[in-house]
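Q: I have 140 residues here and want to know how they pack in 3D. Can you give me a structure?
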Amino acid sequence: MTQKQTQKNILIIHGPNMNLLGHRTIEASPNITLDKLNRNLRRIAGKLELKLKIFQTQDEARAVTIVQRQRNKICGLLLFPGPWQKSGYTLQDTLKLLSIPFVTISLGEKAEVLLGLKNIEEPDLFQASEMALIHLSDSI
């Protein structure tokens, strides 16, 4: 394991439409925005001594490129895949090839394609984020 990986660097990728999170009707997380979610992720990461790199993209090919470029700098991945949960075959193939431990958080999408260490289906995104980062931290 490299020095960079021992620092517990975690890559977070927010998938399609996460930039419009404030427009979703989420019962347990009203008035949530992507900025609020990212602030919460950074707060939790600080407590767990994790370092985060966060991206949001609509494009699965871009997500694959990000994962490939970051592969030697990270020891885990947290995905908010949205529609990729059911259709992310290219992303799934990349994750299998690189053997990067990952956790997904589903927003109303059932886990079918992207099956990592854990899939969290929790309506409260702040709580789901905390669960995901703790699980990743314990697994790396």
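Q: Anything worth noting?
A: Residues 1-6 have pLDDT under 50 and may be disordered. DSSP finds six helices and five strands in the chain.
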